[in-house]
């Protein structure tokens, strides 16, 4: 069920409350007008009975008085049948006119009893009351519209704007600045101060937990780097010694796993440096042709010569970035492509220029990356659906490290469909700006 916005709910509720108040006011006003008309009629009838008793002590003197025109809107009728008690006034509609009518007992001084029927024309009073009612309805409608507009303005300034500013402050909070990027509680509206205080307390707890996690990863990566280097070095030394043919496969496996662990430790260190704001990269001119040849010569033998280097169709301009980190990104993408591209299908390395960027392509012939996963695979510890049927034992942080390194160099990484099927991972680097020639 979709929940309506709080502003709309408050505005609707307030407007309904105003309309309900006006309705009660109109009903009360109408009831008071009817009550006043009835009380005035009862006073008139009471005064008539007293006047007739005083001026007509017997029935013979009563008849001439009743024939006199007391008021144009008043009709009197005398019944010889005595009434036990006075009737309540009844409003009767006779055509377009309204009449109040009641029967009152009348006892004269000579002891004779009659019933006096008093009818009063209250058409003017009823019409005036109806006109006043509709005028109040129109006034209530106009007032409701004005109240609705005023409520909208009040809610906008008193609720929506403070919430938007509060949301902006929350959105600006970064994981690396949880400890000191606190929301100023005193500057918030009174209703939002408990929320701001609770959020600040949550930030403090998250900051402590985040710092502990970051320190643990950083410390473990530093501590493991030395033994991993020693294991790899000793394995390589043993492989160079003669007479160890039986143990050579095990030594090669030890060396490969040690190198993989060293690469993983390097990635973890980069993530820890990025989280703490300590990741610093150089921005130097890069000759892309030389960088591609260097990556090919370093990685082609270990790939079983499945890595192919495509010759650029034209001379490529110079890019800007960190040469060592670019080699790290290329190695990670090539290794990833070799894992997902079935043997003996090749993995190609190419480059071209696209607008103001120089793009390095690592294309495989694997299952590719689904469109809905092309952003998620660059998140930490995320792996695409293609990894389910793959023997790749990746940690899920390689592509995340590639993205943070490329962004730190002022570039980006993305994936698209390769022309011949598979995935095309692209490293975008900014072009070097040509130096301005100053004429003498």
UniProtKB/TrEMBL annotation:
Domain Histidine kinase, first and last residues per copy: 219-433
Task: Write down the InterPro entries for this protein, in alphabetical order.
Answer: HAMP_dom, HATPase_C_sf, HATPase_dom, His_kinase_dom, HisK_dim/P_dom, HisK_dim/P_sf, Sig_transdc_His_kin-like_C
Q: Which UniProt keywords apply?
A: Kinase, Membrane, Phosphoprotein, Transferase, Transmembrane, Transmembrane helix, Two-component regulatory system
Give the transmembrane ranges: 6-28, 133-155
Enzyme class label: transferase
Give every HAMP domain span: 157-211
EC number(s) on file: 2.7.13.3
A cellular component term from Gene Ontology for this protein is:
membrane
Name the PROSITE patterns for this protein.
Answer: HAMP, HIS_KIN
Q: What chemistry does it catalyse, as a reaction equation?
A: ATP + protein L-histidine = ADP + protein N-phospho-L-histidine
Identify the Pfam families for this entry.
HATPase_c, HisKA
By its UniProt entry, which CDD domains does this protein fall under? HATPase, HisKA
A Gene Ontology MF term for this entry? phosphorelay sensor kinase activity
The subcellular location is: Membrane
Q: What is this protein called?
A: histidine kinase
Which source organism does the UniProt entry give?
A: Cyanobium usitatum str. Tous
